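Thread: "does anyone have the structure for this chain?"

Original post by V.I.:
We have the sequence but no experimental structure in hand. Need at least a predicted one for the grant figures.
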Amino acid sequence: MAAEKRKKGSGSTGVKRRKRPAGASIGLEPTELQAAAPPGVVAELHRAIEEDGGKVLAVYREPYGGRWLVLAALPIELVEPTPYQRNLSDTHVRKLEAVIGKIGSFLDPIIAVRLTKPDQIAKYWTPNGNHRLSAMRTLGAKSIVAIVVPEPAAAYQILALNTEKAHNLREKALEVIRMYKELAQLEDIAEEAYALEFEEPSLITLGLCYEDRPRFSGGAYHPVLKRVEEFLRQPMRGGLERRREMAKVLLALDDEIVKHVEALKTRGLASPYLKSFLVARVNPVRFRPKDAAPLSFDEALDRMAKAAAKFDPDKVKPNDLARSGGAPDEAE
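Reply from O.Q.:
Generated one for you, tokens below.
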């Protein structure tokens, strides 16, 4: 039996390998990354970078989709983070400063796009590299190496690929609403066109709530919102006003829930799940039959508001809280 077990495990590291997708390999061979002449838009970007005081180090195609990229050294004072991404983590920046300073090398290029708007002070935005940029600035660097993407729209798309630091719900929602506001000024298109970047419609509404109330407990409402929100079909310029109305409705419900939380605390009922427990009690979709017609945001929040108004904290027993689960409430 032991020999059989060893045979099954021989040559294995204990990590299950993921199967490769069916079909032939895709992408470019290493020798093909610079085998063709770049298109005019890339040549124009090459010229613009050098006019900005930068230096193009290489022009090549990325190996998966074959899109053209420019590897360049940029004057660090011309580079800024996109205005809609998450806030810097001081801990992460300090760690990068220490590592870069210790090894004496900057080895991980940032991603950047060149701006075409003349009213911007910065000439380049980085949607992926804000922490590295900040660390290099603190260390006194004069330039920073970047992979410059010719398409400005990449500034929004790349955020979906950013895994430098895991998001929590607040960070992601704030990132989404900042991006939304920027896009609403640039393009008159519907939310769904940026479904990949926004990930889910509830993050837009939650982002507005976090802006208005930084210590808002969005995690308590997120499970409900994911089931009742959809991307708006109207252009984002008008959609922003609708989203603000939705955020006000959610914050008004939260005010009522907070009152009940305080009432429970007054009775001596202490639990890290108080708000989540109360939201679950007024959640109209939690036990809704699968074959029932889905509720809209307005329908769901209206039912929750009415249920919250009728809720009696005096009827809650300690055992009710003990049976509640889920993630602890965020700090109020």
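V.I.: this helps a lot. Residues 169-322 form one domain.
O.Q.: and The chain has two domains: 37-161, 169-322.
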